[in-house]
Amino acid sequence: MTEMAKGSVTHQRLIALLSQEGANFRVVTHEAVGKCEAVSEIRGTALGQGAKALV
């Protein structure tokens, strides 16, 4: 299995688990930008909330 496929399976399992447990979450798809400030702007959140996006 390729690394990309492994990541996809892990992502799907995580989404399924969060949904099953009734977690409040959202998936934001964006290009890799590499800067916390840019990602914060894409997410529409404060810069200090970035830790929540690490999962």
Automatic annotation (TrEMBL):
GO terms for molecular function: aminoacyl-tRNA deacylase activity. Gene3D superfamilies: YbaK/aminoacyl-tRNA synthetase-associated domain (3.90.960.10). InterPro entries: YbaK/aa-tRNA-synt-asso_dom_sf. This is YbaK/prolyl-tRNA synthetase associated region.
